[in-house]
Design goal:
7-stranded antiparallel β-sheet; alpha+beta; 4-stranded antiparallel β-sheet; Pnp Oxidase, Chain A; 202 residues
């Protein structure tokens, strides 16, 4: 349905910035490969990270074409028939070739990625060690013109031959942060840091 497509870059950024998990997909040795990953859009590129021992990540970091798919379910749309029932959603697909983030930039890139997922957390914890950075592969997917698509459905069910005697409408769906669960080794008098509060009340 072409009317659900969005062609403006701001629309793409809005979808990418509203989620933190996407599915990275490529082909490895002739077989399809896909894995959900945490990500963050920082300017004109999408940052991801994983273990340097992950062969598929090294494969895409070496230049294999890949896609990152992001989808957000906003509601279930109930019509008076199954054919017209649907879902309200936002989705984006970004295609391209990933590159490895240079070691000199990796620490800053990982900090930016972490703070995009958990705002302010980097200021509350110790810096990454050299060993941790060496074990982490940081990769970037550039956002290039013509290499992405965005689709959005937002609205009630289509009327069609609407039957006023059958309930129809939208059931909104959203992610809600629950009550934080303190790790068992953390002292009881340690207060929740601001980053936890931001996750609970963004």
């Amino acid at each position: 349905m072409p009317e659900r497509s969005r062609s403006d870059r701001a629309g793409l950024d809005a979808v990418l910035d509203a989620a933190v998990v996407g599915t990275l997909a490529t082909v490895v040795d002739g077989q399809p490969w896909a894995v959900p990953m945490l990500y963050a859009r920082i300017g004109d590129r999408i940052l991801l990270h994983g273990s340097t021992g992950a062969g598929a990540l090294r494969h895409v970091a070496a230049g294999a074409p890949a896609t990152l798919c992001v989808s957000i379910l906003d509601g279930i749309v109930l019509a008076d028939n199954l054919f017209d029932s649907s879902a309200n959603y936002r989705s984006a697909v970004v295609r391209g070739h990933l590159t490895t983030v240079d070691r000199t930039e990796a620490d800053g890139a990982l900090t930016a990625l972490s703070d995009a997922v958990i705002p302010g957390r980097s200021a509350e914890v110790r810096p990454s060690t050299r060993k941790e950075l060496a074990a982490t592969l940081t990769i970037a997917l550039p956002i290039d013109d013509g290499q992405w698509t965005v689709k959005v459905r937002d609205g009630p069910p289509s009327e069609g031959d609407a039957n006023p005697r059958v309930w129809a409408g939208v059931v909104p769906i959203g992610a809600v942060a629950g009550t934080p669960e303190r790790a068992p080794w953390v002292d009881a008098d340690v207060p929740e840091p601001p980053s936890v509060g931001r996750l609970r009340h963004p």
